[in-house]
Design goal:
Layout lengths: L1 H14 L4 H16 L11 H12 L13
Helix pairs in contact: 1-2, 2-3
């Protein structure tokens, strides 16, 4: 469950970002660390949530609400 706390902290920091490039870059990092099926710290979330987040990240649509359903 440590990854859940780490994820929450990263998302809170992510939500305070203002620069669009920084938002997109951090979204990729968070997805890769916690939501990617290849991640060592993969969270247990539904495939629907995972696909939704992946779509936003891959299409540079990430925003403050991108990870809301995952935590």
């Amino acid at each position: 469950a440590g990854e859940n706390v780490d994820f929450w902290h990263r998302v809170v920091a992510f939500q305070s970002l203002k620069d669009q490039d920084a938002i997109q870059e951090e979204a990729k990092k968070i997805y890769g660390t916690f939501l990617s099926p290849a991640s060592a710290s993969e969270l247990n979330v539904s495939s629907k949530i995972r696909k939704s987040v992946k779509y936003e990240v891959e299409n540079s649509l990430a925003n403050a609400a991108t990870f809301d359903d995952a935590h």
